[in-house]
Amino acid sequence: MAETGIHVLPKTGAEAAKQGTLASFKDFVVVEVLNDDPMAKYIALLGRFEGRDEVAVLLLNRKPFNKDSLSSLVGEGLELQHDFVNDIYSKYVGKPPPEHATVTVDLIYPATEKHVRKYRQQRRRMVKETPEMYEGIILPYILSYPPAALQWVYNVLEKKKEVDRLIFEDPDPQLGFMLHPDLKWDQQQVDQLYCLAIIHRRDVPCLRSLDLTHLELLENIRDKGCKAIQDKYGVPANSLRIFVHYPPSYWHFHVHFVHAAFAAPGTAAGKAILLDDIIDNIKIFGKDYWRQRTLTYQLGEADDMWKLLGGAV
Amino acid sequence: MAETGIHVLPKTGAEAAKQGTLASFKDFVVVEVLNDDPMAKYIALLGRFEGRDEVAVLLLNRKPFNKDSLSSLVGEGLELQHDFVNDIYSKYVGKPPPEHATVTVDLIYPATEKHVRKYRQQRRRMVKETPEMYEGIILPYILSYPPAALQWVYNVLEKKKEVDRLIFEDPDPQLGFMLHPDLKWDQQQVDQLYCLAIIHRRDVPCLRSLDLTHLELLENIRDKGCKAIQDKYGVPANSLRIFVHYPPSYWHFHVHFVHAAFAAPGTAAGKAILLDDIIDNIKIFGKDYWRQRTLTYQLGEADDMWKLLGGAV
């Protein structure tokens, strides 16, 4: 690099970043918090190196605790500052020794608009959908949905796609369904099991459509889905959280089977509704139960439905 | 303390621990890793102070990143060590400045066998609690619960504890409640907001106890709780996920208010039930709704209730 005899100037952050040789973020400016996941202790930032137009996406992740070096973590090196005490419960802020306090830093630089969108989180809102809002706004919206949006589902049901991933099929046109591992699941660890059952019937867009005439279908999915998962993966029915999403991400009825130990995204109340709750409510409270309810659920602000319901809630 | 002229000896860790005045874990020995959640960057340890038989449960949690002081986190103070580079993607190990590297430390000391069981990782099971199982097994179990287990709740309600943390109180003996930030929440970042409303009435152990006579109480909690949170933290009602747990971790009715963007533990369907769903169901389907339902929920295998119900499901 210095072969012409010119002084080697200290590299700017931008140059070092491109070579993966940054020493710190000295001349870096954060422009936007793209996402912040306090549960995972993760944050995604958009920023710029001084004097540069190109943007960078920066991902910071706390490290898990290292079980193999607990004696150096939990010892004299962990400085404690009192926060709170009540009976046998006390709470401190702890400063761990530096080697136990590292974070992983992922940098994408220069980042494209596509990277930025990928890592940017949208605001989530809770809405209350009354039966009248469903009939007047959501149902027409579902019915106006272009059929092409469900083509990928029909490709799966017609075995044009994902045939090699099929776990189980009940081909009955009224009661039948297909069960596949969800694409999110790598099928390596059964305690992260995530499977999807898609029904063969094409006239049930969502939870709101369900009544007494669908009970046999719902029980069939539950019973045969659980048996297929037990047979293939050895996970018993009582280790499965079985639910639907309302609203679903596509308007063709499908059921999620997820390992009960797995805190998968999309399992929260206000998004997930247990299949057993769906069945129990129809049985006890009548065929119109899911049409009579005011359903409270989360929507992203970028969601079409938030725009449709936004004024009304 | 030293009024008799005796030297004040340096306190042992065990003594300091009981008073919430530990400075470090100098004379603490880890006996067992009870749980390790690398996703949440959390670890639960069982240990002892030297020379003591009583055990302690120690919970360490990495702090989420603090969005409000990013300039001091992402700057010169974040020391980077090169890990990997490929095209625009690079990866480092980062050493954040100490104030950005703290962990929360929760200590239960002396801990009972029940605490140890609670924090020891256990297999999660889904159970179906029929109305008959509630009446025959769970209700007698609740009623047999030692009142001392709720003493900490009564301490809060009687303002013997946590007075400085009180956000809002409605003192009405029938409709009233107290609202506090949950201990899990450090009150720094509103998108991690987690508050708890505890009712003044002492005769409502859980969801199953609720009927038409509690509607006013439930709506009061929702409406005044949301208003108090809006006033204090600026978070509007439609950014809150409001729910109860069934089964709850203690049998005195309380309601969780959590930011909708926050994937907090315990928000999953099969554990959390939305307050609006509770209200809506009582209104539409009658006063006995929550007694008539078969409730499907998760239990740890070490839970007393799993043992009680285990044979029956």
From TrEMBL, chains A, B:
Recorded superkingdom: Eukaryota
Coiled coil spans: none
InterPro entries: DcpS/DCS2, HIT-like_sf, Scavenger_mRNA_decap_enz_N
Pfam families in UniProt: DcpS (PF05652), DcpS_C (PF11969)
Matching PANTHER family: HISTIDINE TRIAD HIT PROTEIN MEMBER, M7GPPPX DIPHOSPHATASE
Family: Belongs to the HIT family.
Entry protein name: Scavenger mRNA decapping enzyme
Originating species: Volvox africanus
